[in-house]
Amino acid sequence: MSTKVLEIKDVTVSFDGFKAINNLNFSMDEGELRVIIGPNGAGKTTFLDVISGKTKPTEGVAYFKGQDLRKYKEHEISRLGIGRKFQTPRVYLNLTPRENLDLSCNRNKNVFSTLFKKAPSAEKRTVGGLLETIGLDHKADIPAALLSHGEKQWLEIGMLVAQSPDLLLVDEPVAGLTDEETEQTGKLLMSLAESHSIVVIEHDMEFVRQIARQVTVLHQGSVLFEGTMDQVQTDPKVIEVYLGKETGLTPEQMLLLRIAATMAWADDNFADVQQALILDRLSRKFAHAPEEQAELRSDLQNLLATEIPLEDLVPQLTTQAQREEALMLSYEVISSNQINQTEAIVYQKLLNLLSLPPETVSRLEAAALEELAARG
Ligand code: ADP
Ligand code: MG
């Protein structure tokens, strides 16, 4: 029988009546690397707070390897073998990485904690081995203050590992990192996953795709969906909730975007240039502030990068105005570069599904081309 490293049963966390976690059920096997995603405010950080003992459940129970965590204080839970990495690195800046790791390795462990541990791999526990694992062996003896943001994150991960936890909790490890650092972080977590159970909360979908095996989607304090990244990205519930909430789009706007994205993918050849152009156009159309546009661009890239059959989408358009807008946007998208045969076929299908009068179609197509020309 395999013990669950984590088992969360009917947990609710209320803040003055507001349920940040709402009757949440979750379980995870030992040795798993689990990624938790969900829109802002979904309850992800609170979820980690419950596991690390920072917050006690209002209702329900969280078990770590069968032990009821309600009985322990935060520092006791950490000694039980749950290590948590917060978003901002907490390293000693005036000490070197080696000294930081030395301190963590020597932090006192009581008998209580060692009782529950499997023998940690000797290699990983030595400071030298750890420096290598986190890729800082060549910077081992310079002050940590001189490390990049990413390197500080790795050092802090190393400091957690030095305390040989069984379960690592990691909140948004790649926020603010460069692409290269992000990829390195992914590799580090995957290598640590060989000997630890890990929960990672993350926003960056490309990163999630890099590391994720099993993904749990939180929404309004509960589990909305669980599955592989492919399943997550094609689940309509997830797309709806995720994109809708992050960007404040209405369901109608979202539907239009999904139709346009499906058109863009019609020929299975969503060239980078074309993609950039379309995403830029769509994000400008649906978001105003530059930050919102950037966010929407990446959401679209992440979540609409799958073809959803037009037959499923078009019938959801309820008004004539929406059908007209869908046509115009789609025509704009496919006309943004040379329309090829596949696109033409899919466009024809869209026209059939929309069943707008021919003169309306001509008028909208002309308007779409004008819009394109105006934007250059
Ligand atoms: P996430 O990490 O998914 O963005 P959080 O767990 O931080 O979400 O927050 C979930 C919800 O609970 C949010 O609406 C947040 O405002 C609320 N919340 C979190 N902590 C507290 C608190 N200490 N008091 C009141 N509300 C809180
Ligand atoms: Mg959070």
UniProtKB/TrEMBL annotation:
Domain of life: Bacteria
GO molecular function, one term: ATP binding
NCBIfam families recorded: urea_trans_UrtD
ABC transporter domain: residues covered: 6-245
UniProt key word Glycoprotein: no
Entries under Pfam families matching the protein: ABC_tran (PF00005), BCA_ABC_TP_C (PF12399)
Keywords: ATP-binding, Nucleotide-binding, Transport
Entry protein name: Urea ABC transporter ATP-binding protein UrtD
